[in-house]
Design brief:
By secondary structure, this protein is mainly alpha-helical. Helix content is 64%, strand content 0%. The protein folds into 2 domains: 112 residues, no CATH class; 39 residues.
Length: 200
């Protein structure tokens, strides 16, 4: 659902928001609500992940009755994508931050999987597995093409034939003689085959 707000954002200048409300004191941007959601997730203890989930689920269902599956699907999707983002990062640049985020996200995803009565997470994992297979296939094809290109370059001619002025006719005469030679060779082969098969 494009443009849908899934989480409860704090009101601007609200100095006493609910502990699970997300956003900044002075402004909020619905386009950044996923970032706000994960920022808050990093601030709360692990044993509050479920209450945090249910707090935002209740807010979502207040305007989207009966769409609990859609909420779980959205959370699984953005959590999985964020995990993939951190796994692809260069861990040596900011190892501590990356590992901390991965720990929080993996723990929260386990909670989501436990609450996923529709087995949505399985289809997401299958999509990721298919993506990995597709990437591996592309890499194999690229390597094969690269090897072929290298092999073909070995036979590249480094220099072109240079015809000295006044010798064009000589070169053409040479080509004609080569054609005659090929025709004579082909004719001799045909006569030989006729004799072998008893044809005269």
């Amino acid at each position: 659902m494009k443009g849908t707000s899934y989480f409860k954002l704090r009101s601007p200048f609200n100095f006493t928001p609910h502990p699970y409300e997300i956003g900044n004191l002075f402004f909020y941007n619905k386009k950044l609500e996923n970032n706000f959601f994960f920022n808050k997730l990093n601030e709360i203890p692990e044993d509050e992940y479920r209450p945090y989930f249910y707090f935002h689920l209740e807010h979502f269902l207040s305007s989207h009755t009966g769409q609990e599956r859609k909420f779980v699907e959205h959370l699984l999707k953005i959590t999985t994508h964020r995990i993939e983002h951190y796994r692809l990062k260069d861990i040596y640049r900011d190892a501590e931050n990356t590992l901390d985020n991965l720990y929080v996200l993996d723990a929260f995803k386990e909670v989501l999987i436990d609450l996923d009565e529709w087995n949505i997470h399985k289809s997401l994992e299958m999509q990721l597995a298919e993506k990995d297979i597709e990437i591996a296939t592309y890499k194999t094809e690229i390597k094969a093409l690269t090897d072929k290109l290298k092999e073909s370059k070995e036979f590249d001619v480094d220099s072109k034939i240079r015809i000295v002025q006044g010798f064009h006719q000589t070169l053409i005469h040479l080509f004609v003689q080569m054609q005659d030679l090929e025709l004579q060779t082909a004719g001799s082969s045909a006569n030989h085959n006729d004799k072998v098969h008893g044809i005269r």
